Amino acid sequence: MREEPRSGCAINAAVEVLGDPWTLIVLRDVIFGGRRHFRELMTRNEEGIASNVLAARLRRLVEAGLLTRDDAARRGQRGTYTLTEAGIKTLPVMVALGTWGLRHRPTTPRLAVRARVLADSPHLVAELMAELREIHLGVPRENHTGPSASEQLRQAYEAASG
Amino acid sequence: MREEPRSGCAINAAVEVLGDPWTLIVLRDVIFGGRRHFRELMTRNEEGIASNVLAARLRRLVEAGLLTRDDAARRGQRGTYTLTEAGIKTLPVMVALGTWGLRHRPTTPRLAVRARVLADSPHLVAELMAELREIHLGVPRENHTGPSASEQLRQAYEAASG
DNA sequence: CCTGAGTGCTTGCGATTCGCAACTGGTTGA
DNA sequence: TCAACCAGTTGCGAATCGCAAGCACTCAGG
Predict the structure, then answer these.
(1) Nearest of B140, B125, B25 to residue B152 by alpha carbon
(2) Claim: this prediction has a pTM higher than 0.90
(3) Which region ranges are annotated with the description Disordered (chains A, B) (predicted)?
(4) For B46-120, where are the E strands, in sequence order?
(5) Per residue in B128-158, pLDDT tens?
(6) A90 phi and psi angles, rounded to 5 deg
(7) Is the shortest CB-to-strand distance from B32 to strand C under 7 Å?
(8) Is B1 buried (19+), middle (13-18) or exposed (0-12) by CB count in 10 A?
(9) Model confidence at B59, in pLDDT bands (50, 70, 90)?
(10) Residue A38 CA, nucleotide D3 C1', distance (Å)
């Protein structure tokens, strides 16, 4: 995190921050799962992340400017992690990864629903980013009619589950 | 590589294959740099990948079905790595990462040109995929007029350098 | 046939990171 | 007061990383 980048290539720059087996998983849970707290990210994580790994990843994500941490959050207090604009902008990367994984890797239908829905609707991706800006950055939304993006994703998930 | 996936989530499935500090870099050099041989990938790599790491990554990429290796390639012979359709389909992931890195990380102008050009032109991305299918899979292209996608990228690079 | 350059790796080694489990030090609510 | 909850930290064995050599093989030239 502190040291020089390996090169000035844009892809390398992104990989140096996001290119490990856990960072994108944590970010996914914040973006799609609405997780904002340490315990929530740890216990409700599908892949079973360990507490020390989670702590290290959150620290790095804050250092890299993808998340911010509540200043009031000390030991024992319920701290809150918040997405920055840079963090929200990783959504297209998630969608691209999900689209690829859906097509070229084994997935379980229930968990892959999100990826399928988002892959088919660029508009929904934009709506979700607007919703994240509202929740995490306090940016008010305009032209907001009908169910929210996360609500649409939830409905698609439930439809696939039932 | 052999073991069970951590979960059935599409994003996790993609991360388990692509989520480490080197895999996407190797793939980038094959896709954008036209590298097809071990030595070429090692010595002409911007970030200085080590030979054992490169060997391990190539092995994993072949196992995962993103690359194939020339059967004729034994020790001492010049072996050739070829992209599969699954490998070619990682291009949108590269573009998304490049677009993000360009915007939210420090990059050097020269090396970031590719990312900038591709971020601004979805059509060029599609053309590059068609070109990769022609080179690696032998799929003939139709409606192909003017300079190729890689040629356009090269011209953009030289324009930025000079 | 020999030699030297080029090929794709493998091996050894110290340092870092991973994954698991237990533990710490604080807050909150009854 | 006290159990439950919260955000981590610490220890430890195993795996991986990054670096430097070395190995096995082929091929072209003399």
Answers:
(1) B125
(2) yes
(3) 140-162
(4) 67-69, 81-83
(5) 999 999 999 999 988 788 899 999 999 998 8
(6) -80, -5
(7) no
(8) exposed
(9) very high
(10) 21
